[in-house]
Here is the input.
Amino acid sequence: MSGDLAIAHTTGGTRHKTRYLLPSFVGGYLYPLGGLGILFVVWWFGGWLIANDDDLSAFADFAPGPTFAALVDLIGSGDLSDSILSSLYRVGTGLLWGFAIGVPIGILIGYLTIAMRIANVPFQFLRMISPLAWMPIAVLAFETWDSAIIFLIVMATVWPIMFSTSHGVKRIDPDWFKVSRNLGASGTQMVRTIILPAIMADVMAGVRLAVGVAWVVLVPAEYLGVTSGLGYAINDARDTLAYDTLAAIVLIIGVIGYTLDSACAKLVNRFNWHQEA
Here is the structure.
């Protein structure tokens, strides 16, 4: 979206306002860069306060300067590549399972009222349980830590995908189903030609929520048992008192999380056929 720059001037005693159209790339990036600038100033000021407090000076490496220096070292050494790939693998696998489970069940409970009446209370009850609360069960039930962490991510991602899918099905005009039945469409054909195209924006909105929840759950889940991943890297940096490295890893987690969320937002817009031109 372009921004407008208005400049007032006076000619012959009459005040005029001239509008100058900012380039689209300036209008699109000006506010986000301003927000990041404010965040950086707050971060720098917090680091300055910590560095000048005798009780907190041991944590001075959380400041921007040491953090960015550690970030450059991490990128240059390539030490975090395996950790990033391990974390993305766990999130991706858990998200795929959450999608495979959540979409069919969401279509079922959205299409059949009786199914929603039966499943709503149990599903809402399970949804309110923190995914990390399943950790003891996951450790006992699965042979590897990777499988246990993926299970936790599934428990975090299945609910937003399921309920977003159900919401999308409920929004479909019932007349579409009547017409398709009158034309002799089978259940499979209705799912393929009516339901799936109509609900994709809602499904992708659920996936976007699921990605955010999964990324939040991943880090504490990787504190236990595994020897790779961003959560493990944070825990290792904490144990070695490498606070600059810890802050750099947190920064990387934020950048990757924001990138994933932005990609999901583009997919939501791609499938949203209700948006205005």
